[in-house]
Amino acid sequence: MQPSTTSVTQESLAGKEKPLPERFGFKINDILDVEENIILYDFMIEGGLNVIAAPPSSGKTLLAYHLAISFLQSGRNVVYVDLDNPVDVPRRRGLPQKIQEIGAEDRFVYLNSAKYMEMQNSGTVKSKQDFLGYIFGNLKGVERGTFVFIDSLQNFVRKTTDENEMGIFLNYLKLMTMSGVTVVLIHHFSRTEKHIKGDSRIIDLPDAVYVIEKIVNESGEILRVELKNEKKKYSEMADVLLVDFQGDYDFEIASNISEKEREVLVIIKTLYSKGIEKIQQKDLKSSIRKRVSIGNNNLQIILKKFVEEGILIEERDGKKLFYDLSGVESYETGL
Asked: Which of 211, 171, 188, 213 is nearest to 49 (CA)?
């Protein structure tokens, strides 16, 4: 026997509802008045949990300091929890000097493993999660507009593949963000991996996850890093972003230029910055192929494109083809 069904319409429900006896929770106007999340530099969410992941020696500390200074310059507070590096690292990287230069000493707090051990030995905290609780407790009243950097995940979680342990830690950070704190969590992963593997919670729970790929010059110095998105809360956030360490604290979406083109362009910029204004084609190709794995045909296509865009200017001397590199000086799109 088939069960009977009844069609329910808005008209048939009219007059049957009873209002809730008492208003509880948020009122509609309270919800309407909530401020929207602010997207910072096209890839971070203010008041959110943001993860920056990287293999070893990829420039993650440079990027974290770069971000910290930019936030201080914009009037925010920064708490840097560094359990990865000894206290002399920020000094050697010029972090305190820059903070003094911009007059932001009263808006910056630095804590490292030595401070944690001191507090643990005195009985002030029993665990690293207690340590975070101590930090959060000291931010009462200034949560909104405060950025907490945690460097790095592996110092707070024994096994990043343990979803239960990861869930407890990341949920704690999410609770911090609900009070207005912006969390920037640094996460290391294997040098052989190109993206995060095995840590489902590190993708599921944060609001934004970006992976670093470094871009170096001919001497191996990190000039800039490329950030590739693995998770974003809003569609307008960048898929790929480039951060330049050589000039101002700039963050640029990279959407109109391929990865190989960017690598080639970095080398051309480096040559020009060394005073090489004109170079023979074969010498330019040789310089590029020493640093970039690229076939001759593909390289030829890229160089032709750069000529069309005015980045390179072709000049001939008999049978020899030279490139004038001066056009690269004014070319900034995508880098």
From this structure: 171
